[in-house]
Design brief:
29% strand; alpha+beta; four-stranded antiparallel beta sheet
Length: 89
């Protein structure tokens, strides 16, 4: 997370806000995730979060049983549209 914030300082506060909410969340499914992050989407085994509106995408894997969220990618909108990240999902 810190590395993503260093690479994209304009998104740092939004990333840390997402991390703070996610750390204390107890989610059992995507419906519960969407109660907090309305724009979250499931893509294969990954959950994609919009950061700073439509500017960045945070690609994660959520294990609802273990209550863990693994960060896979933090991408600009352009990078996201190339679909290379989908191989990890």
């Amino acid at each position: 997370m810190v590395e993503y914030a260093r690479q994209h300082p304009e998104a740092a506060s939004a990333l840390f806000r997402w991390a703070g909410i996610t750390r204390v969340a107890v989610w059992r499914n995507l419906v519960q995730v969407r109660m907090v992050f309305r724009q979250a989407d499931q893509v294969g085994a990954c959950t994609v979060f919009n950061i700073m509106g439509n500017n960045y995408r945070l690609i994660t894997r959520i294990d609802y049983g273990l209550q863990t969220v693994t960060l896979k990618h933090f991408l600009t909108h352009q990078q996201y549209d190339r679909d290379k990240w989908k191989k990890d999902c």
